[in-house]
Amino acid sequence: MIPDSFIQDLLARADIVDVVESYLKLKKSGANYSACCPFHNEKSPSFTVSPNKQFYHCFGCGAHGTAISFIMEYAGLGFVEAVHDLANRLGMAVPQEQSHSAGFAGSGGESARPVVSPGKIRGLADIMLQALQFYKTQLKQSPQAIEYLKKRGLTGEIAARFGIGYAPAGFQNLMVPFPQYNDPNLVVAGLVIENEQGRRYDRFRERIMFPIINPKGDVIGFGGRVLDKGEPKYLNSPETPLFLKGQEVFGLPQARQALRETNTAIVVEGYMDVVALAQHGVGNAVATLGTATTPTHIRKLLRQVDRLVFCFDGDNAGRKAAWRALENALETLVDNKQVGFVFLPEADDPDSFVRAHGAEAFQRVIQQATPLSDFLLQELSSRCDMASAEGRAKLIHEAKPLLTLLPTPSLRLQIVKRLSDISGFSQAEVERLCDLRPIAKRAPARAPRQAPSINRTLLQCVLSKPALALRLPSPLPAASLADVNTPEYVALTDIANCVCDHVENTGQVPTYPLIREALRGMGSAAMVQTLIGQMLEQPQENEDEMEQEFSDILAKLSHGPGQQAFDQLQAKARSLGVAGLSEGEKRQYLDFLAKKK
């Protein structure tokens, strides 16, 4: 069994926009994103992704669900496989419950990674912020560190913009901001190391400290650069519940405005490169965090800009890093996005280049970046003897796994044509040798729409704000005798039970994605996804007005359902006579009459 708590944590960490955009090209449309639906053939986009509610919905075919649902439908995976797929993307290990407690069914055998509650995450973020404030104070008190930054051409303004600090010499300096130095959270946050003998010491010592800040503005990790010479040059925070290296980039919050203005993101290798470029007016640079560029990094950046340029040193290590970036970029590309590569002279990195030649020269290099397709073909050709038949055959062999990664039909076609010219094979032969076949897409049945009702309005309120379900009475009153059998009433009851059970078990109100997963396989799931789709087409209702409407309906139901039911039975009796009522209706009618006496 996969624990419910893990599914909650998984869906809380996942961004459905990132998940869907790993397969589709999304376009910003108001508060949401849109695309042509991958589940049926269409020319005009009817597929919507809501980053606020973390679900997708197609107005054309009715496809609907969470990040897990999308992976299941698009990749043809089962629930457990989709959970593992999503967890792998986020660097999370799927734990297994050995007990018979409620959870999502799964296969055992995997080691468990502790599930961290949102409260724990918030506490770790507060610790990291406190550490940053300490490092910034230490920088002001260290003439050596200040002199080093001045030598690198950095001003106090740019240091403040990036929150740069200093970790002084010594093994337990963090006892100053954290008198409880034995707090286990200091180890969890990656600030303190505990050796085999149980002795603790600060991870960062005598280093310029660069805080790593996520899009929410939380400090999630640090990169420490040694003063002058020393190894390792850069020391990064370990992976923690806050910080996953494969997902975050350094400098993104500071670069956001420049990214919008230039529509280009420059990826460099070092923190100091990012800061030095910003000091010279090149504000759209970011850096990976001590790891190779991942597909997640690339998707995150290409969601904000249309052009991505990798800037590497011109030595062998730089070209190898560029090739890894190219391999990871292929599966993320869409036809309206561009990826390029810049190789600086071997003696230079972005920091030294911009200081020696200035921002304009650096920008010219970026503008002249080698396109991904050119770099790919140049690199593959350099590995093959193009003068021999064997070499040209090897070229196609080397290109095949790369071409199959490309989801972009236009770019893939262009590369295939150029491969045809280089290799001497025809275009059709290249496509056949590389097994390049289109993917057929199925079209589920169109979802039906339902007429408005009081229960539907209550359901809309609860779906917009799940905490309102806690205010629903149990059993749920019906507006009429017939209402208890409607899909809206059944769905409202199921959601109320789901929310109450979840609050009782975890103390937290579940989000919509978790509710949607809890309804998987239940009859009310179809009703919910249809209503969610209709809600997307309506203007966002004011929260106070929605809560007032919810309260008014509950008040009406608590006082009026009996009278409404009696009126319905009385009208039927007058029309058909008492003999026209069923035995159950007769008993209810007589009970109503007895209560009125």
Report on the structure:
The chain has a five-stranded antiparallel β-sheet. A five-stranded mixed β-sheet has the order 15-14-16-17-18. Residues 99-115 and 438-451 have low confidence and may be disordered. It is globular and about 100 Å long. It is of the alpha+beta class and 597 residues long. Strand 14 (264-268), helix 10 (271-279) and strand 15 (285-287) form a beta-alpha-beta unit. The protein contains 25 helices and 18 strands.
In short:
This protein is an alpha+beta fold.
- What gyration radius follows from the Cα positions, in whole Å? 30 Å
Q: Could you give the count of β-strands?
A: 18
Number of helices: 25
Order of adjacent strands in the largest pleated sheet = 2-3-4-5-6
The rough form would be described as globular
Instruction: Give the strand content.
Output: 5-15%
